[in-house]
Amino acid sequence: MSDDADADGQTYSRQQPQTLSELQSFTTADFHEVEAFHYRGDLSKRRVVRGIIQAAAEELSWQGEANSNSLRDFWYNPTKAVLEEAFPDAYGGPGTSKFNRNMSKCLSSVLSDMVKDGEITYRDLNILDDSRDREIHTDSVESDKILFCEKSSAYRKLKPLEEVYKLSLVEGSGWQATAAIEDLVRQLETDNGNQYTVYVLSDFDPAGFGIVEDFAARVEQFGLPVANVKRIGITPEQVSQQALDDQKFTPGGSNIDDWLAEYGIDGKYGLELEAVGTDLEKKGRALRKLVVNEIKDDVDTRSRRAKDTAAKIASKGRGAAGPVARSITSDLEDALQDAAATIVEDDVPGVTGVENTMFGMQVSIDFDVIEEIHSDDEADVDGYDIFALVDHAKATEATFGHPVDIFIDHFEPDDGYEAEFVDVRPSVSSTSTILTKYIQEFDLNVSEEVATALLYGIRAETLDFKRDTTPADLTAAAYLYPFANHDTLEQVESPSMSPETLDVLAEAITNREVQGSHLVSNAGFIRDRDALTQAASHLLNLEGITTTAVFGIAEETIYLAARSKDIRMNIGKVLQDAFGEIGEAAGHSTQASVEIPLGIFTGIETTDDNRDTLLSLTEEAVKRKLFDAMGVEGGEGSNGS
Known about the structure:
- By secondary structure, this protein is α/β, with parallel strands linked by helices.
- Helix content is 40%, strand content 13%.
- It has 24 helices and 17 strands.
- The protein has a six-stranded mixed sheet with strand order 12-13-14-15-17-16, sandwiched between helices. A five-stranded mixed sheet has the order 3-5-4-6-7. It has a four-stranded parallel sheet with strand order 8-9-10-11, with no helix packed on it.
- Strand 13, helix 21 and strand 14 form a beta-alpha-beta unit.
- The radius of gyration is 32 Å and the shape is elongated.
- 34% of the residues are buried.
């Protein structure tokens, strides 16, 4: 029997309230006296929710995007309080997570059904669905194509395709995507003559097929001219027999017999999108390949080439459009499957080893580290087709041993790279500023992780806007600020200090020698070389100090870390001048490091008996060469007291 059945002979004394204020004044007993709120003699939560929605629709109207509400707003006011009064004993009672979860799910379901049946729209309740991402492209060659993803995980994997094809990519969640579709339709031009093609990416099961039908019905209901709706989800033919055996499942729900009889694997199984790849690292690539193979015949490659070539010519002066036109070719679908190699050194300029590790942990960014990438040895890079050097130029940089496709930096490199795509902007203080400008100019969505990383890069390069800060850096930082995770930034910029780091810092403070505004210190024998970089950074905060260098000995090697906020000094060049012929120096104007074989200074093998002697000899030699390279005139130094 349906939810609209008459009650079983029970009498009721009150009429259904027509206004929100009347409904909000109801007591628990009042709800039991309204026939419209009952089903088979029992108070029905679905009918009470329907009454709330109907009453709200009479009083509310669309107030514009800036003043709109969300479904969550509607849950907290007025729905939650009304349901707590109507059902004080349900799901453990008001205030429990079980009550909130089940009642809010009921609200979402009832409202979606009412919208789907044409009884109401989300705009009638002043609701804008901002819980899902969607990028609307109305001026691209492919503006007549919409790609709808049933699952959020698939949406994220397909973002690269959206950026290349400029499709309108919509993230949905099964049958609850009504609001997303409604807002999508209202953003699209319906009078431009477009006949839209809708690609629906879904599971191979009855619900997945049903979403295709439901989507088509709703966009037509809302007035969007749809020429075709295509399902492009996974099929049994696209996976191996092993994957099929491992990933198939028995779908649930009612009225699925017809689907199973026509489509079901062995007449009884379905397949989820996740089965597209058996290797977690390759699922995204496999999913993108699946989609590209389905849509490539519909892509207007000729028009795309013409438009992108025109864009290339128009922006030729900036040197930033070179690879764009070349990438839009008949082989585009293959190029989309290729991943650029991300080369990350152990010591990234501007980010200490400790900060590198901390940042990776905080924002969940995985780094592929290729050892000895600058050496003459054959590195294991055969799996990469494209090399990008980003923020790579340094005063002490050795020649990169492989052809470079993309070069982006805010420093001019000492060694030129014949890259196809070059963007060097000395007018800004951070490469993160350049990358942020890309996001702004191409109107890309920026995730919290990316925004946090870029904002950190700008702050690190400008010493939190206290050094060489340009208007472009400030504008980029202001753009990123609302999207970044500031708790993460605080943890990265003020990491906890290990006992080893504390010992090194204490030793460096005790042994510091200051000449003018330059401080050099010996931290002794160390176990953690990263502690040197933290010590150098902390000592830079001493009054009157503009340059610091802290060194220590570990495993027959002298390690030195230096920091500078003196705009007249390039600390990377200082270390290169001082130790370039006897050690390996790396860095640029504000931070640098060097590694020197201990035997260069002493020619003596380290033992427990001669440790103090070696330390004394090393300290004298390192300090003398370093102060000389800094241009500090002779004279006795002090400890800065």
